[in-house]
Amino acid sequence: MCGRIIREESAMSAIHVAPLRADLTFGARVTGVTLDTLADPEVRSLLRDTFEERGMILFEDVEPDGGLQVAISTVFGPLKDHPIPTVPRAGGALHPGVIEIGQEPREGNIVIVDGKEVTSWLPWHFDHCYNNKLNRAGVLRCITGVREGGQTGFADGIDLHRALSPELRRQIEDRNVLYSLNLRFRDMRFGLAEGFREIQPHKRLQETIDYGKNNLPRAVHPAVWTRDDGAKVLHISPWMAEGIEDAETPAGDALLEAVCREMLATITPYFHTWRPTDMVIWDNVRMLHAVNGHDPDERRVMHRTTIEGDYGLGYFENNAEGHRLLEMTV
Question: Which of 58, 131, 175, 190 could link 260 by a cystine bridge, Cβ 3.0 to 4.6 Å?
Fold first, then answer.
């Protein structure tokens, strides 16, 4: 199927599909997407098949328009709105479902990674790990870029599972991981980079973090799950992980740390440098993503849509009830 999808061109449109990069087993580049081409059912079917097979799509040379972002997003499912009213709605009533992610200079988190001070840095994770349901996908485009950095990284859970050593794979295969809504980097217990240091937490998120950490139930997700096509996915978010279900012990913590360390050491990522005419969608139940950060004195703004959906394998610890805050997209 992979070769068929990557070589295929729609006879009724200008859609072209190619591998994201020759050395990667995931990701596709797609050009020719407009509101007109999306009206073709065969184009929409081709895009869905490509997404299912490759895990992420980079749409190149698209019009920088919120309406097109919504149209592309809805090819893959209904949109999920952000539950917090104060989160900026970039599209307003005209383009519902589009939120703005960004901050003014020195406003957000500031950390030191690899000896460099950056903001908007995010470690490897999957969205909604702290919720019982995972959104199906995220769609991003860059509105205000930066001179250096600000790249979004993507890594394939299928590749991560294959690359994991047989011994660790055997030990983690049937385990579940606990997650909480604790976004503080300094509280990360697993897989934190050597030499990492937090200079300034995200000011606007502190109340949410404190409430989530102390009042909300923990979510549980499998460390490895199997797709309908038989492929196994290593799906662990080092960020916000609390430990292994029924093994919150030194031995259980050591196992999760070993898996996270090896996962991050063997990861084969794609880091995307943003242009105004780019849009990216990624499969949230297969891929991990991260952001490498940028100069804290620069402003960076992204527009995001989120696709509803779930793989049906997550739940809350002790059959607890959820909370509106757990519907956030991070």
Answer: 190
